[in-house]
């Protein structure tokens, strides 16, 4: 799961509190906590002086506070009422969502916004199953998220309890056990398990990378008392993962043997400064995955473009005209959304692939020679900077950069809005004119945003590639805005907005989220893709929807934009607003989105393809 991993050297678990978050202590005693840290009257968690009136639910809430959790997102229910109450009376800010999947997406984005673990809470039965898609995305994205759920108490199992949650009704494997979905999962049947659970969570959260856990607490156990249970005194420090001296020496040898390129993924986001220094020291060309946008400045002369879905043809131009001997891959799996497994991206002598997950190097391109290095990206690049020689200035060539096509003049009637005109306005008002986080939903919103928006800072752009669930950005934008304490903008499609939005939640908590809806009355990636692939008869249309009316009905501010001349004013009004804001943009549904690379990949996997009509070309990477 590696490209998602942070590779950060910043402490996650320590005996010292964060200055900005005084409650973030992993080892506490009642004598160490003053009243300001012991928020809401919650007792300090599990020590020799723990009063007998402390319930398991209260102890879990305080445990989460000590693990650094500041936000919990979820939907309540009777089976977890005690746990919900304990969370609500702790220092954790509890946000009640309208759907559990939206809560999980928001928790995922909150983690990436503040680099702290987050909580999702659900009731039994459908509460758990509703959350699974969002938790699947959390695991795929590499977030640190803990699911707290209720389950049926032992005496009632098998007796058709309301929303019974037991092995009689749900498969335990994968939901209540560790596996592909959860890194760690356990059902808490006794307070005596809490010290061991606390130790496991603390140790796991100290490691680099993602961690998704599930604590299932039976309804009856939540109110049971904690007696004679002491928390182990943990002194847990982060686990830096550094390459061996031999691996560093071999990497230096390989990279010194000829020109090389750098391929940057999301897992390298904590090493932005070091990667910039490495590129300028060596003259290496730099490309990035869609999730890696902004880690290396996209306006830098050595940036040759984004690869994969919504990427740039300039990358292929570079690989054809100035091919590197090797490519240094930093923090990306090189999966289909990043590479389409294109042979055009394979350098002559192969890859040096650095990741914290030892199973990642060589997976996407098993036939290509790959020297795998298991290491934190930042630590690895720092070592390279010490040992690699500077590139001679005479060998630093002019590199191709992402193409920026001029937008054609507006037609006499500037209706409907062309997507490329909308993106140019977003670039000007949102990207360059504010510090807002920008998120793009899957589908054409993803490809237009990734292809046309340009970022020069890390942590400004977020997309989901591996899972790509509809509704991720629509709801995740709340978590990003909340945890970053700034504006967050979701560029989303009408299909995703209809599927799973949390406008009502944003209104309740006054979260300054902004939605820009590409309203074309279609699932347009599907509509355009089916047409290009020559598959007929499938219906991807939607009834026209007035999203501004819906948003205003929920208490948000909203505008409908149907003309290109009104876009910038609408964006300025949204970014200046202090309340949730939606802009419903009626776009030209027939403008071909830059998703040709996806269609080519589908065709290579056996989907029937037909040639483009009238010699038209797709504008995505790679060209179709």
Describe the structure.
- This protein is of the alpha/beta class and about 625 residues long.
- It has 3 domains: about 1-220, Rossmann fold (3-Layer(aba) Sandwich), CATH 3.40.50.970; about 245-395, Rossmann fold, CATH 3.40.50.1220; about 420-615, Thiamin diphosphate (ThDP)-binding fold, Pyr/PP domains (Rossmann fold, 3-Layer(aba) Sandwich), CATH 3.40.50.970.
- The chain contains 20 helices and 18 strands.
- The protein has a 6-stranded parallel β-sheet, with helices on both faces. Strands 9-8-7-10-11-12 form a 6-stranded parallel β-sheet. The protein has a 6-stranded parallel β-sheet with strand order 14-13-15-16-18-17, sandwiched between helices.
- Helix 8 links the parallel strand 7 and strand 8 (about 285-290).
- Helix 1 (about 55-65) crosses helix 2 and helix 3 (about 100-115) runs parallel beside helix 4 (about 125-140).
- The longest helix has 16 residues, at about 125-140.
- The two termini are about 30 Å apart.
Task: Output the CATH topology of the largest domain.
Answer: Rossmann fold
Which blocks of ≥5 consecutive residues have pLDDT under 50?
A: 1-50, 597-605, 607-624
CATH homologous group name of the largest domain? Thiamin diphosphate (ThDP)-binding fold, Pyr/PP domains
How many β-strand runs? 18
What's this, in brief?
31% of the residues lie in helices and 15% in strands. By secondary structure, it is α/β, with parallel strands linked by helices.
């Amino acid at each position: 799961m590696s490209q998602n991993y942070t590779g950060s050297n910043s402490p996650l678990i320590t005996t010292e509190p964060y200055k900005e978050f005084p409650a973030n202590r992993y080892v506490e005693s009642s004598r160490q906590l003053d009243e300001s840290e012991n928020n809401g009257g919650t007792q300090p968690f599990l020590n020799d002086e723990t009063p007998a009136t402390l319930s398991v639910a209260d102890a879990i809430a305080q445990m989460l506070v000590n693990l650094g959790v500041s936000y919990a997102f979820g939907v309540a229910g009777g089976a977890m009422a005690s746990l919900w109450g304990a969370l609500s009376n702790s220092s954790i800010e509890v946000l009640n969502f309208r759907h559990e999947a939206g809560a999980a997406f928001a928790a995922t984005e909150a983690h990436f916004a503040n680099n702290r673990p987050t909580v999702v809470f659900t009731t039994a039965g459908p509460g758990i199953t509703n959350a699974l898609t969002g938790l699947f995305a959390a695991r795929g994205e590499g977030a640190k998220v803990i699911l707290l759920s209720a389950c049926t108490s032992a005496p009632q199992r098998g007796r058709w309890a309301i929303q019974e949650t037991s092995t009689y009704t749900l498969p335990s494997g994968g939901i209540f056990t560790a596996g592909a979905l959860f890194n760690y999962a356990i059902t808490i049947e006794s307070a005596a398990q809490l010290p061991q659970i606390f130790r496991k969570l603390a140790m796991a959260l100290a490691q680099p990378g993602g961690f998704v856990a599930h604590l299932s607490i039976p309804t009856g156990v939540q109110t049971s008392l904690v007696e004679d249970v002491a928390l182990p005194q943990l002194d847990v420090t982060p686990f830096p993962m550094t390459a061996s001296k031999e691996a560093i020496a071999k990497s230096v040898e390989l990279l010194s043997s000829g020109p090389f390129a750098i391929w940057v993924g999301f897992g390298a986001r904590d090493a932005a400064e070091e990667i910039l220094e490495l590129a300028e020291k060596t003259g290496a060309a730099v490309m990035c995955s869609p999730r890696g946008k902004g880690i290396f400045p996209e306006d830098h002369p050595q940036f040759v473009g984004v690869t994969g879905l919504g990427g740039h043809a300039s990358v292929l131009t570079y690989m054809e005209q100035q091919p590197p001997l090797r490519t240094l891959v930093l923090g990306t799996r090189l999966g289909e959304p990043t590479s389409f497994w294109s042979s055009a991206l394979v350098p002559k002598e192969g890859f040096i692939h650095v990741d914290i997950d030892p199973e990642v190097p060589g997976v996407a391109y098993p036939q290509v020679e790959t020297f795998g290095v298991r290491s934190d990206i930042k630590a690895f690049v720092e070592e390279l900077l010490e040992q690699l020689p500077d590139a001679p200035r005479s060998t630093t060539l002019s590199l191709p950069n992402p193409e920026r096509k001029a937008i054609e003049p507006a037609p006499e009637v500037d209706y409907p809005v062309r997507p490329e005109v909308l993106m140019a306005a977003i670039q000007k008002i949102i990207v360059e004119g504010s510090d807002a986080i920008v998120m793009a939903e899957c589908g054409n919103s993803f490809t237009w945003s990734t292809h046309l928006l340009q970022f020069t800072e890390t942590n400004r752009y977020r997309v989901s590639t591996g899972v790509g669930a509809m509704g991720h950005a629509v709801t995740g934008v709340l978590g990003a805005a909340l945890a970053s304490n700034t504006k967050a903008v979701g560029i989303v499609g009408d299909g995703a907005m209809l599927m799973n939005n949390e406008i009502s939640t944003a209104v309740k908590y006054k979260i300054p989220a902004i939605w820009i809806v590409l309203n074309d009355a279609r699932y347009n990636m599907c509509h355009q893709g089916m047409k290009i692939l020559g598959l007929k008869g499938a219906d991807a249309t939607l009834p026209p929807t007035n999203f501004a009316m819906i948003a205003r009905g929920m208490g948000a501010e909203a505008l409908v934009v149907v003309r290109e001349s009104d876009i910038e004013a609408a964006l300025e009004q949204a970014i200046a607003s202090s309340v949730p804001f939606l802009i419903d943009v009626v776009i030209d549904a027939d403008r071909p989105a830059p998703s040709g690379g996806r269609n080519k990949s589908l065709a290579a996997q056996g989907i029937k393809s037909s040639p483009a009509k009238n010699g038209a070309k797709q504008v995505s990477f790679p060209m179709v």
